[in-house]
Write a structure and sequence with these properties.
This protein has 5 helices and 3 strands. With 171 residues, the chain is mainly alpha-helical. Helix 1 packs across helix 2 and helix 2 packs across helix 3.
Length: 171
């Protein structure tokens, strides 16, 4: 069964769209078992497509960035990725944030619901707004730091490809 979020608009990530995606995925993929976040926020990150934050009051915020060029499938996958973190927290799952339990759950959801959940935002293109933000950030960064950033990005891409391939082979 594949998941579709009606009225998806690639031009505008909104708190309402994030909440609607959460509700639909919770019902279809998680049997309505996940605790609903207290807040749904649009972030402006060019490094993270999504995140889940917990504060000292045990309030949960699900954040999705508006700096990426999402299509419906990718947006759904990013929300589902964050929902795995919600499940991980709720069920006190063992291991690291993107460890064995996370990868198995991700693989199971991908297989059962034909989602394309990834381990990271690498490979998701930035929107024009995100590209402009990255250019401004890079322009204000000293040259030696930009070079170091490029070298680190190269090694991160290699690590990411190895992790994605390993996750697909193991699970």
């Amino acid at each position: 069964t594949s998941i579709s979020i009606n009225t998806f608009n690639t031009a505008k990530v909104s708190e309402e769209l994030i909440e609607k995606a959460f509700d639909e995925l919770n019902r279809k993929c998680f049997g309505s078992e996940l605790r609903k976040p207290n807040f749904f926020k649009v972030s402006h990150s060019i490094k993270r497509a999504g995140s889940v934050d917990f504060n000292y009051k045990k309030q949960m915020t699900l954040n999705i960035s508006d700096m990426f060029a999402f299509d419906e499938e990718t947006f759904t996958a990013v929300v589902a990725h964050e929902m795995i973190h919600v499940l991980q927290s709720q069920s006190h799952a063992p291991g690291s944030t993107h460890g064995r339990w996370f990868k198995k759950t991700m693989s199971d959801l991908n297989r059962k619901y034909h989602l394309n959940i990834r381990l990271s935002a690498m490979g998701i293109p930035l929107s024009p707004k995100g590209i402009n933000k990255r250019k401004k950030e890079r322009a204000s960064t000293p040259a030696f730091m930009r070079c170091l950033d490029d070298v680190c990005s190269f090694f991160l891409r290699i690590t990411f490809c190895v992790r994605e391939t390993t996750a697909r082979l193991l699970y």
